[in-house]
């Protein structure tokens, strides 16, 4: 007897069994893909954190040298170091590398013992990396969740000052 043109017995469950056995055989593959993505994101996060920490450590060394003796040689080495940096991420939750970088920039730009050519070269590296564009975030506090009472206090204080 032919049912709906498929042929075979409509009460035979072999078609449904093969579908579910195929579905269950896909679970390990899906699990491995999801697990692999989680591990990849975790490794990427660790790599980014270590890269940021390394950059911070290097910039702190430059800042220490520039604070002690802001000379042209140290400013040149800073410019060379920044030329090797491909990106400088500005994270509002971790502003130390950014603040140290801005401190180094100010020490170089205010120094009389650093040549103008070196200052211009360093300025180009800071602009290329976008460090000077992120200056508006430097003095902001890290983002926090505000409770409704603090919002009310801010609103209330705003009216008192008007």
Low-confidence stretches: 145-162
Average pLDDT rating: 76
Helix content: 55-70%
Query: What string gives the helices and strands in order?
Result: HHHHH
What's the total count of β strands? 0
Q: Which of globular, elongated, flat, extended, rod-shaped describes the shape?
A: rod-shaped
Span between N and C termini? 89 Å
Largest beta-sheet details: none
Secondary structure tally, helices: 5
Rg, nearest Å? 30 Å
Strand content: under 5%
Q: Which structural class fits the helix and strand makeup? A: mainly alpha
In a nutshell, what does this entry contain?
By secondary structure, this protein is mostly helical. It starts with 13 loop residues before the first helix and ends with a helix. It is built from 5 helices and no strands.
Write the layout of secondary structure elements.
Blueprint: H1 14-68, H2 72-83, H3 96-110, H4 116-129, H5 148-160
Helix pairs in contact: 1-3, 2-4
How would you describe this structure to a colleague?
The structure is a single chain. This protein is an all-alpha fold and 162 residues long. The protein has a domain at 57-140. Helix content is 67%, strand content 0%. The protein is built from five helices and no strands. Helix 2 (72-83) runs parallel beside helix 4 (116-129). It is rod-shaped. The chain starts with 13 loop residues before the first helix and ends with a helix. Mean pLDDT is 76; it is low at 145-162.
């Amino acid at each position: 007897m032919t049912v709906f043109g498929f042929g075979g017995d409509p009460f035979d469950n072999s078609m449904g069994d093969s579908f579910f056995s195929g579905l269950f055989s896909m679970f390990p593959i899906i699990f491995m893909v999801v697990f692999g993505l989680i591990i990849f994101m975790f490794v990427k996060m660790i790599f980014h954190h270590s890269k940021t920490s390394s950059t911070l450590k290097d910039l702190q060394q430059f800042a220490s040298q520039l604070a002690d003796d802001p000379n042209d040689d140290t400013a040149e080495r800073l410019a060379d170091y920044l030329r090797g940096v491909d990106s400088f991420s500005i994270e509002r939750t971790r502003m130390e590398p950014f603040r140290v970088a801005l401190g180094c920039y100010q020490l170089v730009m205010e120094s009389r013992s650093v040549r103008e050519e070196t200052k211009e070269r360093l300025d180009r590296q800071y602009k290329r990396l976008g460090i000077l564009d992120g200056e508006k975030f430097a003095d902001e506090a890290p983002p926090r969740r505000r409770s409704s009472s603090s919002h009310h206090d801010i609103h209330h204080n705003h009216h008192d000052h008007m």
